[in-house]
Design brief:
Layout (H helix, E strand, L loop, with lengths): L1 H25 L12 E2 L2 E2 L20 E4 L2 E4 L1
Antiparallel strand pairs: 1-2, 3-4
C-alpha cells in the first residue's frame, strides 16, 4: 500500500512540474505590440514604449531610435 502511495505521489508531482513548465513558457508577456519593432541597437523597448506610430501608449512613451556613427541609439 505504501509503495502505491509513493507511486501516486510521484505521478502527482510530475503533473505539477509539467504544469509549471507549460505555464512558465507560455506566460511570457510580449515585448512590444504586434508588428512593432522592439529593439534599438541592443536595447529592448517594451510596450507601453515604442518607436513607431501606433506602437506606444502616448507621446510621453515615444522612443526616438537614431543611427549615430552607424549604431542605433535611443533618445
Amino acid at each position: 500500500m505504501a509503495a502505491l502511495q509513493g507511486i501516486l505521489l510521484i505521478i502527482q508531482l510530475s503533473f505539477v512540474i509539467i504544469g509549471v513548465l507549460i505555464v512558465s513558457t507560455t506566460a511570457a508577456a510580449p515585448q512590444a505590440l504586434p508588428n512593432c519593432p522592439d529593439k534599438c541597437g541592443n536595447l529592448t523597448v517594451p510596450y507601453p514604449f515604442g518607436m513607431a506610430e501606433g506602437c506606444y501608449r502616448g507621446n510621453a512613451f515615444f522612443v526616438n531610435c537614431r543611427l549615430v556613427a552607424k549604431q542605433p541609439i535611443p533618445q
